[in-house]
TrEMBL record, chain A:
InterPro entries on file: TAT_signal
Name of the protein in question: Twin-arginine translocation pathway signal
Source species: Thioclava pacifica DSM 10166
Automatic annotation (TrEMBL), chain B:
Gene3D superfamilies, per database record: FAD/NAD(P)-binding domain (3.50.50.60)
Protein name: 2-keto-gluconate dehydrogenase
Protein keywords: FAD, Flavoprotein, Oxidoreductase
Family statement drawn from the similarity comment of this UniProt entry: Belongs to the GMC oxidoreductase family.
Residues in Glucose-methanol-choline oxidoreductase C-terminal domain copies: 391-507
InterPro entries recorded: FAD/NAD-bd_sf (IPR036188), GMC_OxRdtase_N (IPR000172), GMC_OxRtase_C (IPR007867)
Species this protein is from: Thioclava pacifica DSM 10166
Length: 174, 523
């Protein structure tokens, strides 16, 4: 089983040294990839690095939240990096890249504007591949407890005694 | 001392299901000295077990065995395998319900009389008069500890209620309050008061909300007359050569087929599983399913005309804090055809946590229109529409022989298509709901489509005449006198109100009837 490599384990220079550039947002190496700013890094066991980078960008384009860091999108789709799932993902991303080339772009990742990438996704919206990725993100992204505070959501409250003394009726602007 | 009855004991009443209907009936009968075996498909979970986490709780409590869907309702597209969000556990959906406990309005018992002929609708008057049910509503409200009834005060309003109240009053609505809730505003019946925790749908960890799981079930067991068998999945009801119910076949927790003999069988598995059991109980004598000479078993499935309206404001609301559904606007619940539809609807506060909001705000939605809404999650207020939908013969539960469950039994298919009256009502409610939030300065509003059904009604309906329905005014099958329906599937029509209080009132009334008939030797 591949282990996840965190950015804390390597210096930024080491990361860059072992990486080769591929795509708009990522530094990608052989079986290993990291964000350009070293905010996250992960080791891959089945998917090609460029495929995974494209998948992460696709995830962000489906559910774009500018205040959510890449690491959460990475975690949301990391489950597809398995021998079982990889063939369908490779084929789906290949189709997405082919659609991009059909519109005159080099590939999906290097399609610069979100609106152009979204147009490509709209073109495959009914496909099982798109629906699988989108459906998986609903829980894969939004059920990560670490993203809840970014939206202000407070989660479990029983252990804190509920909100009876913690602002259940504290609205002050009505 | 918890009772233990023998499988061959044919003197017991067997109740299938332990929710608001079956759980209450089991206790009420046990209190009267009637011996009861209650079969429950799910396991036992008590307040300590409930989880303040939407998906984890769903995994713990929801009925997730396969079902299929058809019809033009959006649930069939977005949640094709999950037509209903109901619970599989001792206590049933009374663990999950929000606690809203409203009596039907008098005219809602007599919709055929008051609404007249509505094309495509299979309207029928209930064979019960409102006055007949009134004393049982009193008993149900006392059992559940409903706020704003008896001398019980209302719950305090949370942030989400305050937004609703201010907007509703700005529009001139009068009947606006924190609801009639089976959630304690003060300590009552040995249960503590609401701690404004939220997560009402995930089971109340304080026990402040009434559920049969920790009230009627243990009290019934304490009499020594009630045995609850959990993890028992009912396959079919058996009958003798006179056409009387004689026992119930079920798969026990180890998957072994068992048969409990019965004097009387009461079916309370909700409006999807109850007709499924009857249809799966077909025999040479009853080729179309048990109690189905009318052909009405499974038909007239109702789920309320629902939908939600969420509003986004420029400042925080934090709608998830506090009692989820303690807030209501009742002014639109009246029958007033000048609005373009018959019947009426309630508007009730509702909130979802972030994970469920992502799943249900606009199922299938994506892109910035969707995500910018979630970006404003903290600034959202929410309300739920609960309106009377039209009974239609073609909205129905059938057996899907292409799909079987873990025991090889055909699963239920749920077919539902909105009636034009349902659509007109929903559109009206969406517009009024948006106007309420606009009146408080909403910057965006969202007309959110119905969720998988929580109010499942009408598939074994009461009728005066045997040809029009499945059971009589006591929930007793027209065709099989010792077979009763004890859940929301006996509803003739759905009314605009959340159904649990009426299910409980009917169960208390049915217990009186069954005990009386048994003592007279009639059954």
């Amino acid at each position: 089983m591949a282990t996840k490599v965190g950015s804390k384990g390597l210096t930024r220079r080491q990361l860059l040294a072992r990486a080769t550039a591929a795509g708009a947002s990522f530094v990608v190496g052989s079986g290993f990839m990291a964000a350009r700013d070293a905010a996250w890094a992960t080791e891959l066991s089945a998917l090609k690095p460029t495929t995974f980078a494209t998948l992460v960008q696709m995830a962000r384009d489906i559910y774009p939240h500018d205040k959510i860091d890449d690491q959460y999108y990475v975690l949301a789709v990391k489950g597809y990096d398995t021998a079982d799932a990889a063939p369908e993902i490779e084929a789906g991303i290949a189709a997405l890249d082919a659609a991009a080339r059909g519109k005159g772009f080099a590939n999906y990742l290097e399609t610069g504007w979100e609106r152009d990438r979204v147009d490509l996704l709209r073109g495959m919206e009914e496909s099982p591949f798109f629906q699988k990725i989108r459906g998986g993100l609903v829980t894969g992204l939004y059920n990560q407890k670490a993203v809840w505070p970014i939206f202000g959501y407070e989660g479990e409250s029983y252990s804190k005694g509920g909100y009876i003394n913690r602002g259940f009726d504290d609205i002050d602007w009505l | 001392m918890v009772a233990k009855f023998d499988l061959s004991d044919d003197s017991v009443v067997v109740i299938i299901g332990t929710g608001a209907g079956g759980g209450v009936l089991a206790n009420e009968l046990a209190q009267k000295g009637v011996k009861v075996v209650a079969l429950e498909a799910g396991g036992r979970y008590l307040p300590d077990d409930y989880i303040n986490d939407e998906w984890d709780s769903f995994g713990q409590l929801a009925w997730t065995e396969p079902r299929t869907t058809s019809g033009d309702w959006r649930v069939a597209k977005d949640f094709s395998g999950l037509p209903a969000w109901i619970v599989k556990a001792v206590g049933g959906t009374s663990i999950h319900w929000a606690g809203a406990s409203l009596r039907f309005q008098d005219h809602e018992f007599k919709t055929k009389t008051h609404y007249g002929n509505v094309d495509g609708a299979n309207l029928l008057d209930w064979p019960i008069d409102p006055a007949e049910l009134a004393p049982y509503y009193d008993k149900a409200e006392a059992k559940l500890g409903v706020t704003r009834t008896g001398d019980r005060p209302g719950l305090p309003g949370n942030n989400n209620f305050k937004v609703l109240e201010k907007g509703a009053k700005a529009l001139g609505y009068q009947d606006v309050n924190t609801g009639h809730m089976a959630i304690n505003s003060i300590e009552y019946d040995g249960r503590m008061s609401c701690q404004q925790t939220g997560f009402c749908f995930q089971g109340c960890k304080w026990g402040a909300k009434w559920s049969s799981a920790y009230t009627d079930i243990p009290r019934g067991e304490a009499t020594g007359n009630l045995e609850v068998r959990d993890h028992c999945h009912v396959a079919r009801i058996l009958h003798d050569d006179k056409g009387m119910a004689s026992g119930v076949e079920y798969f026990d927790k180890d998957g072994n087929l068992q048969m409990q003999k019965a004097k009387i069988v009461c079916l309370a598995g909700n409006s999807i599983e109850s007709p499924r059991v009857l249809l799966n109980s077909h025999s040479a004598m009853f080729p179309d399913g048990l109690a189905n000479s009318s052909g009405q078993v499974g038909r007239n499935y109702m789920r309320h005309t629902t939908g939600s309206v969420y509003g986004v404001f420029d400042k925080p609301v934090k709608m998830w804090r506090g009692t989820t559904m303690a807030g209501i606007v009742r002014d639109e619940a009246r029958h007033d055809p000048s609005r373009g539809f018959v019947g009426g609807y309630e508007l009730e506060t509702l909130s979802l946590g972030l994970p469920f909001m992502a799943a249900f705000l606009d199922p299938g939605g994506w892109g910035r229109e969707f995500t910018s809404a979630l970006d404003s999650y903290e600034n959202m207020a929410g309300m739920w529409i609960v309106g009377e939908d039209m009974p239609q013969e073609t909205n129905r539960i059938t057996l899907n022989h292409e799909v079987t469950d873990a025991y090889g039994l055909p699963v239920a298919n749920v077919n539902y298509t909105d009636h034009p009256n349902d659509r007109a009502m929903r559109d009206h409610a969406y517009a009024r709901g948006a106007a309420i939030y606009d009146a408080v300065g909403a910057t965006r509003t969202f007309p959110t489509p119905p969720y998988p059904s929580t109010h499942n009604l009408g598939t074994n309906r009461m009728s005066e005449k045997p040809r029009d329905g499945v059971v009589n005014k006591h929930g007793q099958a027209h065709d099989v006198p010792n077979l009763f329906i004890s859940d929301g599937s006996q509803f003739t029509t759905g009314a605009a109100e959340n159904p649990t209080l009426t299910i409980v009132a009917l169960a208390i009334r049915q217990a009186d009837f069954i005990a009386d008939e048994m003592s007279k030797g009639n059954i």
